[in-house]
Amino acid sequence: MMIPSAAKKQKKSSLFRPTLGDRVFDICNGVFLVLLCVVTIYPMYYVVAASFSNNIALLTNPGFLPYPRGFNAGAYRLAFSHPLLVSGYQNSLIYLGTALPINLVMTLFCGYFMASKGVLLKKPIIALIMFTMFFSGGMIPIYLNIRNLGLFNSLWSLTLPGAMSVFNCIICKTAIEAVPDSLQESAYIDGANDFVIVFRIIFPLIMPTVAVLLLYYGVAHWNSWFPASLYIEDRTRLPVQNILRAVLIANSDILNAAATENDRIDQFAETIKYAAIVITTVPVLCIYPFLQRYFVKGVMIGAVKG
Amino acid sequence: MKKFLSLLVAVLFIAASTSALAAPDLYPAGDRYPLDTDVSITWWVGEGFRPAEVFATADESPFHVNLQQLTGVNIDWRWVPHEAEQSQALNLMLTENPLPDVIFGGVNLVSDAARYMEEGVFIDLTPYLEEHAPAYWQWLHSNPAYANAFKTDDGKFFGFGFFREDGGWNDSFNGPLVRQDWLDECGLEAPVTISDWTNVLTVFNEKYGATFTAPWPRFRQMGSGMSGAFGAYGSSDLSLYLDGDGKVQMAQAQPEWLNYMLQLNEWWAAGLIDQDLLANQSDTETRAKVLAGSSGLAYSSMGQLSNWRADADQAGEGANWVGLQYPTGDDGTLSMIFGGYGIGSTVCVISGDTDEAKIPVILQMLDYAYTDEGFLFWNYGVQGESWDYDANGEAIYLPIVTEDPDGLNNAIEKYSGTTWNGCGIQATRLLYLKNNPASIEANNLWFYPNEAVSSYWRLPPGITLTADESTENDFIRSSISTLVSETCAKLITGEMTAADWDEYVGQLESLGLARMLEINQAAYERYLAR
Amino acid sequence: MTTSPPRAKFGSPYNPYKRKSIGQIIARDYKQNKYKYLMVLPVLVFIAVFAYTPMTGLVIAFKEFRPRLGIAGSKWVGLTHFENFFNDIFFVRILRNTFSISLLNILFGFPAPILLALLLNEVRNNKFKRSVQTITYMPYFISLIVACALIRVYSQNNGLFSQIAVAFGGTRQNLLMNKNAFYPIYVISEIWQQIGWNSIIYLAALSSIDQEQYEAARIDGANRFKQILYVTLPGLLPTIMILFILRMGSVLNVGFEKIILLYSEATYEVSDVISTYLYRRGIVAENPSFSYATAIGLFNSVVNLTFLLVFNWLAKKATKSSLF
Predict the structure, then answer these.
(1) Which of A298, B429, C232, C279 is spaced 20 to 30 Å from B519 by Cα?
(2) How large is the ipTM?
(3) Which of B275, B280, B474 has the CB atom closest to C264's CB atom?
């Protein structure tokens, strides 16, 4: 599984001196990528700088922000103690904790089935599964279905409908196909059944893919808000993104109302928004460097088509 | 003339204040409450009197807890969170089976009441009202407009309404605002006509870089007063009105409306209007801009004016926001602003899934708001807890409200059910207590000078459609309102001009404007015949 | 299945000369693969409950659905809603906008990560390469809500975009109010958020390209550009094709959530798409028509499916890689 990156190997085995053209290309490439990084990172830097700014200074000048205007960390104190942000945060974590194991098991099972050989009903079953990727009942029938199932206003209305993504199953299937058949065959001979094979043999071997899949699912769940806006009625059950939507997009006063005294706007009304962005985004950003080394090894599609 | 006007306003202001003292003549609660019952009900509440924003659950909200104790009914509150889209929440709730026992919702419940009753979404209250809701029954019959607003053409009562004690005055909570300190600095008079407005906007723009600004949701719904200076009857939201001959018309199909739009476009092109306005600018965003000094002439509400003034006091830079009379036409034409009915557009109904045995209890519970005792509770809370009488025998809020760290508006909402909208009668006094004197004065300026022309162009609340009409009307209205709000934006930004007007009118026709007017005309005539 | 014939149970060795009955085939398949079927069972239950059941709800597109009357009790109206939709004055517009946004997004958004992967592949300094990867992945983790909130802040009249415009001699404006700016804002922000993350899948495919091909190309005197053209790109092609077909299969599924977070009346002309229109007519409007919205949704799904099948067929002919 450990395939060194192309560039690395290329460098090691290169017998040729780089030509002038190569140098020019390298420089242009480097400059372009640096620029891309600057453009990419500025909005994130802006959020952090804004969250530490002085409220009025930020309101009067919301444009280019080279550094925090008038340093003030008070917005964080308020954001961390805001009941709705706290409950939203908790709900999102519970939602992730419930959804991810389901996602993982379903995706492994489905991927394993799709990768299996010599199964009589494989084709029609895969067709049934794939069809759902491109055809759906649409917003209203799906809503009515959730309602009929009695999932309205419960955590399950957010976790179950997204229990599995067919696209992720295809990635999983591709990874499983890359596992040598001999491993499975010898396991069969040793008397192992398919469940043992999936969890004991396949799972450890496709760890990089599993990591990426968890990230795919995790990010999607953490950032999702639309289903909750349809299915969740209790505000104490709303995930954190819905709270953010109220604050950032609808510009509701909910944070401000509790955070500032006597209808005063000059304290944190604007900066608390950015503090809220930081504290909801940082956890996701923190997880990903740990998973990053798996990324390139973890996603394959099409390349190893069975 | 101006002096006379302000004198007139002052006189009327005093008149209004005194009238606010006299509590309405209401049915006595007697010793009916708390009811002797162990009934539990579910009550779904949309935008209006749901628990205040600072509360995560209804158990924390004094009003919602107290209402249960005072009426003796256990209520399981279900309410639309402040984070949610209101109409969406109501539409989706109506797909439930079974429905909650009691539903408090918006205008669509009223106009389509006949169909909803036919389908069994909510029940006909006529057989019960007189017996189980005597206070409401008496209130409804104190004014023919009240009774007509909450029954269908065939005389079936369907719900409990929201009423504003003082009719039109409380209706006109939005209007123009100006920075008096800038006017003084520039040696300008308060603008009266549209030309004056152009002048003030130009001077403010040159001197301070300021523009006209407004929270878009207020501007789009309530801007009819601004349009009134042109003889038009609406802003960007589709609005029907009655013309001089009693015919139902749509404001946005009239040339007067075009003139209004063209004026806005002129200001827009000259850079006199805040370019963020149409980006669905909220109260909070507008407030921030106002505090930052980027506007000197604006459109917002009484409550927002109170906020702006509090901000300005705190910033200490001398900004002095005051109310401003609605602009008149250059020939002195007064704006037609709000209707004088004092009836809210919401309604509280009993769903068709409610247990028959619960109905009398629910009716009595709802009736409480219209009794003398319940009126005080719905407006001020529990006597001794959140309010009491002052030396003059008038209701005042106690320090638990006035010194609440969440601010006065939020604090009143914690204890009162009629702060915004509810099923009860909003006391004018509540608005006096909620807003600072400058805001009250602003509302006087918005309402009284225009009162004479304000009243009867509006379709009376409570016009109901038949089931078949509902389906057709909803469909046409939905298409037309998209076209209208979009055309408004395009006309303002200049993407559409007067040259495109005929094409637009043609599109309205092809969408079924004539049919929509016909349906509503028929409904209005049936209303008159009630 | 408990009555399977005894012969299958003892599992005679495979005999190609002996035809098996259907019962035997099934029994054998069951015996060998029962755990596999058991595994796919939850998947089948899942799609039955959450994908196929709602599809049966599509019948309301042919009725005048009133929630209180239920699906069965609502009046049958046949194709009325479809007729209304095709005659809707916004029909052409929302169809055009949906295709425009989707195709622009494919035109610019689809090649961007491929390009980034190719460029990254040419970087020799591993530290630099990793840093670029780390940074370009990051926006993927920023939620749509936050991304759109930032776009709104930057687009304000006195926001960053206005400042940049003024610096280059333009004028201040709220860019989100400018209908000409909507597509660029949409597509560029989409690339910003996705480019790094989507390049992963291509970098993965690149790492599996046989290094000897590069050696061979170099011996033949191919320069870097030619190596990319003749070795790297062909190596990526299967991945590109699969992703492309998948993308074309959802050509009408534009970023609905993103649009409702960014659009307004001033830009409906270019930004109102099928799904946003459906959402407004079917869920947000006062007294919405659920049936009309469902009819619009059904139309959307059918067009998507058609596109998928067409592109899958084309891809099969052209490159031999296909989904099925």
Answers:
(1) C279
(2) 0.85
(3) B280
